[in-house]
Amino acid sequence: MLLTLLQSIQNISFFVYLRSSGYLYPIILAFHLSAISVFGGMIVLSDLCLLSWIPPHLSGAAVVRGLRTPKRIGLLIAATFGFLLFCCKAEQYYYNVYFRTKLLLLALVAVHALIFRHRVYNRSNEMLAVGPPSLQARVAAFLSLLLWAGILTAGRAIGYVPAPRGLHFL
Amino acid sequence: MTAENPLNLSEIDYIVAECFHIAGFVLAVGMTAIVDLRLLGLILPKQSPHQLASFTALWMAGGLVVAVFSGFVLFSVDPDSYYTNFTFLVKMACLGLAIILNYTVHIKVVLPGASPRHGKIVAGVSLALWVSIVCCGIFIAGDLLHIR
């Protein structure tokens, strides 16, 4: 049933047009990667603050707090382009083991947010106010870096899996 | 006797080199973008561009070194095809311009007292150049910038 749905999505005329165009699909891919690059810098900076690997003249709490909304916007932009890419070749991605790995890691990022949002990110002021960062803040930062590095690697590996035969592209 | 490039023998080695290349440029582009977005007044209003730039510079340089070195390793697999690829040449031109801009004008516009208007213009150009480099990296596969 899921497979039938994915076949229907990829054969919507808009996605057929994107897939068939020699330029549009790579342009969407380029924007997806550009958004990830900009968004990735914010993730790294935010996590370095939580690890207190920043100079004293920077306020770690203010940076973590200030980057929360830009990170969400960056994720939304990257995810929108990613969703367009997925819809163009939904059936092919369905069979791709690295795409599934990437989705699993993204789900773990959501779990990470659920666990650490209230414990660390909403309390960054008190967490980073005095002394070294708490163990929770360091674990949150380390796991975040690990998960996003995994997502980047899985994302690149997607392109190395050959398309299976008999895909139902219009 | 010529030595065989190990990346031609192992697909895994090639993928690992590509992952380092992507991680390196995400760090370089991401750290530069933070300063550029601050110069444009879009993020972190309480931190000065100079404060941010003095911290991100080292991470940006580290990411750039990793991206350039791994990029050279990838290039070594088939130099002839890259050399004749117009999109690759555009990417190298944009990279050269972005690095020159980053270590000349960009350093000046983040200094305290620099003109915010100039800062915005430089940040816009810098972001455009770095995004162009990422886009060209994708377009190399089909040499899409080569109009036939």
Keywords:
heterodimer; A: 170 residues; mainly alpha; B: 148 residues; elongated
Report mean pLDDT of chain B, rounded to a whole number.
Answer: 92
Largest sheet of chain B: none
**What's the overall geometry of chain A?**
elongated
Give the helix/strand class of chain A: mainly alpha
Q: Which spans of chain A of ≥5 residues are poorly predicted at pLDDT below 50? A: none
Please count the beta strands of chain A (DSSP E, at least 2 residues each).
0
Mean of residue pLDDT of chain A? 92
Oligomer: heterodimer
Structural class by SSE content of chain B: mainly alpha
Helix content of chain A: over 70%
From the alpha-carbon coordinates, what is the Rg of chain B to the nearest angstrom? 17 Å
Helices and strands of chain A, in N-to-C order?
A: HHHHHHHHH
Q: Can you characterise this structure?
A:
The complex is a heterodimer of chains A (170) and B (148). Chain A is built from nine helices and no strands. Chain A has 170 residues and is mainly α. Chain A has one domain. Chain A starts with a helix and ends in a 12-residue tail after the last helix. Chain B is mainly alpha-helical. Chain B has one domain. Chain B is built from seven helices and no strands. In chain B, helix 2 packs antiparallel against helix 3. Chain B starts with 5 loop residues before the first helix and ends in a 9-residue tail after the last helix. Chains A and B meet through helix 3, helix 4 and helix 9 of A and helix 2, helix 3 and helix 7 of B.
